[in-house]
Amino acid sequence: MITIDGKQIKLQIWDTAGQESFRSITRSYYRGAAGALLVYDITRRDTFNHLTTWLEDARQHSSSNMVIMLIGNKSDLEARRDVKKEEGEAFAREHGLVFMETSAKTAANVEEAFINTAKEIYQKIQDGVFDINNEANGIKIGPQHSTSSQGLPSGGGGATPGGGCC
């Protein structure tokens, strides 16, 4: 659970570890996802080289509005870096992705990666890009706890008076 604009947002997260053996299962997760984190290891060029394939897979099996964040992981291993930060930034720019580097070991930017992805999804809800009536977008309106529906897209998307999101 995280809070964005004073609203409680529940994130449901699936990790396939990018393993080829999970590829067919991963495709079914894309269909019901509002966001994805595409992660590569900055110390292993081959993980960066496979990004195009994973990105094509994600885009082919997901909503065209899905938020995709590109993550360069293991930023704590600067001495072993094999992929420059600028390369990650350029790939993200070229493909319309949000980019950041993280370290799962030190927790640097890990929480921020999830929060920033959630904020991007929330903004798309606010902008009316995501139809919150369509659960195929990976968004469900939860129990209503607030007394104000400010900030929700017009029409309420099936939400009861009181707001709430995701």
UniProtKB/TrEMBL annotation:
Source superkingdom: Eukaryota
Gly residues bias (residue ranges): 153-166
Residues covered by region (Disordered): 141-166
Family annotation (InterPro entries): P-loop_NTPase, Rab_GTPases_membrane_traffic, Small_GTP-bd, Small_GTPase
Pfam families listed in its UniProt record: Ras
UniProt GO MF annotations: GTP binding; GTPase activity
Family the UniProt entry places it in: Belongs to the small GTPase superfamily. Rab family.
Protein name, per record: Ras-related protein Rab-2A
Origin species: Capitella teleta
